[in-house]
User: Which sequence fits this backbone?
């Protein structure tokens, strides 16, 4: 997924007809992918226009019958058909027959238009749902390295909000089609009635519409581009404010963050108001012009030919009614056009996002993988997050089968990337990863491989669901006994017993109802529930108190010799029981060995351990001082 294109960033400059036609071509491409539904909608719209044209075609004979005025010239077109139809009835029944015919055709036209509106809305909503699902599917099933490091706010806006705007653009285009077809039917009817007056009126209305379009379409498109950019920024800001609420409060940033958020939302609201005002201004403007035109025609006729006013009343009344309806269609067409142009940037974004050839993870190709039966070997592995900035060039690591291997080192050394490579989230750019005798990770079925891994991340992520539901995500068909065993193994039973609902207790958003140590133990229980061959713990104790850290160390001690464990450690105390330790610095293994061996060498590991002991001693002194002051008080 990408951010909005360069064109979306242009908020100034003239907007020509080419932009409008470009958006219409986008809509046509969308409709072409769903030809059956589009043809069905077009058929309903044609039926609605035919019924409406026929209904108004019956209006002129009805007015002649009601007023008793004989037409000065033979009626043509559909009027003649209805005149012949009414002649089949006795004189006394012709008014009733004309009224019933007009009403029946009006009902048929209204029903067809309602159906067209319903199916148009349903069509656009189905598009919205399909786009949202497809975008989420691409996000979840796409390659991790394609979304690694991207902003969450942009994704949320693209997946949740932009499909709604884009589908509304398609709906506006369908409404334009409906209004255009109905307007053409009425225009043809007016031409049959009096082509000179029709052409003169349409020239006047067309001129006014062109002027309105000139002043409205450009601002609408620019407002749409601004809305797209601001929606992305606002969604990102909202996500950051929610995630960083504690930090915002701790640094008293409430007013600053609110001011920034309010400024952007204010700009968004102003751009939306501009478009809404334009959309709803066409109808009153054109209706006012139509009323003034009809009134002017009556005044002119009464002055020029006062004796013919009564005779011409049916034709004049028919022309006024149909012209008013035609102008209503024209105003709705202009409003739909403005809305479509305003939402065009979102539609263009959908086409670009859905048209990209996303690289999806290939989870099911390769050899089946049942169990890990040997060591995991990183052999001359090369990898880079950014082109030209290699992280690993010749990384060589051996993770012994049923042993505990620990990675330590300064931040940014590549420890977490080793875990990501082992999970298959990233692919080596050189070298290979062996996951058993003569078995490369790239050759095995990735879905099978991941089923043999239990992963515990530093952020201890829990979904907003019950404890039991969170645990069962690792193994949906797990029995109660299996869940209970995993909970006990992870030292999580003690605090869960404090909740009456136990496994049915709600975890809250991101597991907020539990402490960091409790969340960590629950994520370990989730990893253990699937009975993995390999257990990966990425900085599992970095943010825990001493008690929670000791409980997790007890869990790891129980698993020693039963699982292949890769532990990425920030606190070196967790490395004491390791079978082998690798010290990574700037993507290179600078030291390796047991805990005692590395301390004796007095290299980087010794420096890190010494610094950790000093931090621990200082923390202990602060706690002692705080306790002494409390007793004196």
Assistant:
């Amino acid at each position: 997924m990408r951010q909005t294109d360069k064109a979306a960033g242009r908020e100034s400059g003239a907007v020509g007809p080419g932009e409008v036609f470009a958006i219409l071509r986008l809509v046509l491409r969308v409709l072409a992918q769903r030809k059956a539904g589009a043809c069905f909608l077009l058929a309903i719209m044609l039926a609605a226009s035919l019924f409406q044209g026929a209904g108004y075609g019956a209006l002129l004979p009805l007015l002649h019958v009601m007023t008793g005025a004989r037409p000065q010239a033979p009626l043509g077109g559909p009027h003649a058909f209805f005149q012949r139809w009414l002649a089949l009835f006795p004189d006394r029944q012709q008014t009733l027959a004309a009224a019933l015919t007009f009403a029946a055709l009006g009902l048929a036209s209204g029903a067809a238009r309602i159906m067209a509106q319903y199916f148009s809305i349903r069509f656009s909503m189905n598009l919205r749902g399909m786009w949202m699902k497809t975008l989420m599917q691409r996000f979840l099933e796409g390659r991790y390295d394609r979304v690694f490091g991207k902003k969450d706010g942009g994704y949320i806006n693209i997946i949740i909000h932009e499909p709604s705007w884009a589908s509304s653009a398609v709906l506006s285009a369908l409404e334009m089609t409906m209004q255009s077809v109905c307007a053409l039917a009425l225009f043809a009817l007016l031409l049959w009635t009096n082509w000179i007056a029709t052409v003169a009126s349409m020239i006047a209305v067309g001129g006014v519409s062109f002027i309105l379009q000139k002043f409205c379409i450009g601002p609408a498109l620019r407002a749409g581009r601004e809305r797209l950019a601001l929606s992305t920024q606002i969604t990102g800001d909202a996500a950051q404010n929610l995630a960083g609420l504690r930090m915002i409060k701790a640094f008293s940033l409430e007013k600053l963050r609110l001011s920034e958020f309010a400024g952007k939302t204010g700009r968004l609201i102003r751009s939306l108001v501009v478009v809404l005002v334009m959309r709803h201004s066409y109808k009153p403007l054109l209706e006012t012009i139509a009323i003034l035109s009809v009134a002017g025609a009556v005044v002119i006729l009464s002055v020029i030919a006062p004796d013919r006013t009564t005779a011409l009343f049916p034709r004049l009344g028919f022309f006024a009614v149909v012209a008013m309806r035609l102008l209503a269609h024209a105003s709705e067409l202009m409003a739909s056009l403005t809305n479509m142009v305003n939402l065009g940037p979102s539609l263009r974004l959908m086409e670009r996002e859905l048209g990209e050839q996303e690289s999806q993870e290939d989870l099911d190709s390769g050899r089946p993988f049942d169990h890990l039966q040997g060591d995991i070997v990183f052999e001359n592995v090369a990898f880079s997050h950014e082109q030209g900035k290699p992280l690993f060039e010749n990384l060589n690591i051996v993770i012994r089968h049923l042993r505990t291997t620990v990675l330590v080192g300064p931040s940014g050394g590549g420890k977490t990337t080793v875990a990501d490579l082992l999970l298959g989230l990233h692919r080596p750019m050189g070298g290979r990863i062996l996951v058993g005798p003569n078995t490369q990770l790239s050759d095995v079925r990735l879905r099978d491989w991941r089923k043999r891994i239990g992963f515990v991340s530093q952020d201890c992520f829990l979904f907003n669901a019950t404890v039991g539901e969170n645990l069962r995500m690792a193994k949906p068909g797990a029995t109660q006994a299996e869940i209970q065993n995993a909970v006990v193994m992870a030292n999580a039973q003690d605090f869960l017993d404090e909740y009456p609902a136990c496994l049915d207790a709600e975890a809250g958003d991101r597991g907020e109802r539990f402490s960091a140590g409790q969340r960590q133990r629950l994520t370990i229980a989730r990893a253990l529930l699937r009975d993995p061959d390999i257990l990966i713990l990425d900085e599992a104790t970095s943010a825990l108190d001493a008690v929670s850290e000791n409980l997790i160390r007890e869990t790891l001690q129980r698993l020693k010799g039963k699982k292949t464990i890769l532990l990425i450690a920030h606190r070196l105390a967790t490395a004491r029981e390791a079978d082998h330790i690798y010290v990574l610095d700037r993507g290179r293994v600078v030291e390796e060995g047991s805990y005692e061996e590395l301390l004796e060498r007095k290299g980087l590991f010794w420096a890190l351990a010494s610094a950790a002991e000093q931090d621990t001693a200082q923390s202990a002194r602060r706690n002692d001082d705080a306790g002494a002051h409390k007793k004196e008080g």
Observations:
- The longest helix spans residues 91-141.
- The chain is about 65% helix and 10% strand.
